[in-house]
């Protein structure tokens, strides 16, 4: 890899992560403010609708975002054709979801859900029009523009929701939040991209891109089925109020994690694709990426596990105390899934779409089984199953991948072991310190726990291998902050 490519990767990571951190702050503000203005029932209704929206979004994208970004060469005609395909699918799905409003209401027996489904069907149209504009910005490495769009959309959406909730709009405030965010993204991507698509042309073939996208669609459907089985099960088995508790815990942990972690694919995919024929450098980037994600996200996640009690009390309020153990378990699950996340990048960068689909079948079965078994023990049992599944799947993911493509398996297992060890020590120290000052107050529990946990994590630096990891990550951080010299 040339120094220019390394610098592009680092700067892309900087803008991407900075945007996601800003979105995380806005997401947390949304949780803190709206949880006090709205009820668990309101959030339970939205959770049901978003299950349907999520399935439709997989088909609406059709894997063409990844196909567009990953393609070595993408002509103007192909880009135009992909736009019209995504837009057309968006129009169709808008009509389909509008018509599904009444069958969904019959299943869940919640009359308010009809209007929610019909209005949120417009998300398919907005996102369908924005898809290739957004993919084009990523392909051109315009990560700063994407960062501004993401932050602006989240801020505007939150402002709209808060104003609506204060005005007494109830669950409609959540609907307005979703639509406002989608509209800002569409306008922002069109303005930043400065590209208007031409008419569809049969002369520009997109057959190979659609073929690649289909494998991504099949994989994403399986992943989505596994990710939504818990929401469906809790809603059908325990009702909207427990679902609202479960959903708020999920939104507090897993949604911000996804917002920070998932967009890094847009940086990793083009970089790993370019160096896949250079095994030593490819392996170095994969192992470094695991350490960056593992330490950078794992330690904050395990602090959430240790300090779930004061975090829930401060951020959600006393009516959400039943969500405390669920939040803790989600944070553990987030840590474990993060350790395996780089494997997903390897599948995509090496064009292993079919193999990724087959592996996803296995992991989805594991996840569904764990959650279904856990549901026999209530909502908390579902959360336990959610955390147990990645504990089984992530070691399997490295073994599976090493069987089909060269992988630095030993280095990845070793790095994961170091990450888990320091996280366990951090969690124990933070929890013990927080519990010791429980009588002083909630804020004291949080502050003392954070200080103790951070000190425990820092104490790992007395071990040489942790100092080496830190030096490598510090060097990458300096590259992220270094501006490209002007020619």
From the spread of the alpha carbons, the general shape counts as globular
Instruction: Estimate percent helicity.
Output: over 70%
SSE order, as H and E?
HHHHHHHHHHHHHHHHHHHH
Instruction: Tell me the number of helical segments per DSSP (H or I, 4 or more residues long).
Output: 20
Sheet with most strands: none
Q: What is the beta-strand fraction?
A: under 5%
Q: Give a count of the beta strands, DSSP E runs of length 2 or more.
A: 0
> Helix- and strand-based class?
mainly alpha
Distance between the termini: 20 Å
Mean pLDDT: 83
Which residues form runs of ≥5 with pLDDT under 50?
Answer: none
The rounded Rg comes to 22 Å
Main location: membrane
Keywords: Cell membrane, Membrane, Transmembrane, Transmembrane helix
Membrane topology: Multi-pass membrane protein
Protein name: Lipopolysaccharide biosynthesis protein
């Amino acid at each position: 890899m040339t120094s220019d490519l390394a610098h592009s990767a680092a700067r892309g990571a900087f803008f991407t992560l900075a945007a996601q951190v800003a979105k995380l702050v806005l997401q947390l503000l949304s949780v803190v403010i709206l949880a006090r203005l709205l009820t668990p029932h309101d959030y339970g209704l939205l959770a049901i609708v978003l299950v349907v929206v999520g399935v439709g979004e997989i088909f609406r994208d059709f894997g063409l975002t990844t196909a567009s970004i990953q393609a070595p060469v993408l002509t103007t005609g192909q880009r135009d054709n992909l736009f019209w395909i995504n837009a057309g699918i968006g129009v169709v799905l808008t009509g389909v979801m509008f018509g599904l409003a009444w069958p969904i209401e019959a299943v869940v027996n919640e009359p308010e859900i009809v209007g929610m489904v019909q209005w949120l069907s417009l998300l398919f149209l907005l996102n369908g029009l924005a898809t290739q504009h957004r993919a084009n910005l990523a392909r051109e490495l315009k990560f700063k523009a994407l960062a501004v769009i993401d932050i602006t959309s989240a801020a505007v959406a939150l402002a709209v929701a808060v104003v609506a909730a204060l005005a007494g709009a109830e669950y409609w405030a959540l609907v307005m939040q979703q639509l406002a965010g989608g509209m800002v993204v569409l306008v922002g991507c069109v303005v930043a991209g400065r590209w208007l698509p031409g008419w569809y042309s049969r002369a520009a073939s997109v057959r190979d891109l659609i073929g690649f996208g289909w494998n991504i669609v099949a994989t994403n459907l399986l992943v989505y089925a596994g990710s939504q089985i818990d929401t469906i099960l809790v809603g059908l088995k325990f009702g909207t109020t427990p679902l609202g508790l479960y959903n708020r815990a999920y939104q507090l942990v897993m949604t911000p994690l996804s917002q920070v972690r998932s967009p890094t694919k847009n940086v990793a995919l083009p970089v790993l694709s370019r160096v896949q024929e250079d095994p030593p450098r490819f392996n170095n980037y994969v192992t470094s990426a695991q350490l960056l994600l593992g330490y950078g996200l794992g330690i904050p996640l395990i602090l959430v596990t240790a300090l779930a009690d004061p975090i829930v009390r401060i951020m959600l309020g006393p009516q959400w105390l039943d969500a405390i153990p669920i939040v803790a378990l989600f944070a553990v699950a987030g840590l474990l899934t993060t350790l395996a996340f780089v494997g997903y990048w390897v599948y995509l960068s090496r064009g292993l779409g079919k193999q990724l689909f087959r592996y996803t079948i296995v992991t989805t079965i594991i996840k569904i089984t764990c959650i279904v078994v856990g549901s026999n023990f209530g909502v908390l049992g579902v959360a336990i199953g959610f955390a147990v599944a990645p504990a089984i799947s992530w070691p399997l993911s490295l073994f599976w991948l090493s069987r089909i493509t060269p992988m630095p398996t030993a280095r990845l297992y070793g790095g994961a072991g170091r990450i888990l060890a320091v996280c366990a020590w951090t969690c124990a120290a933070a929890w013990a310190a927080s519990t010791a000052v429980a009588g002083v107050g909630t804020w004291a529990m949080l502050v003392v726990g954070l200080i103790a946990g951070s000190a425990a994590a820092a104490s790992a630096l007395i071990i040489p291998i942790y100092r080496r990891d830190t030096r490598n990550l510090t060097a990458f951080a300096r590259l992220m902050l270094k501006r490209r010299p002007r020619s």
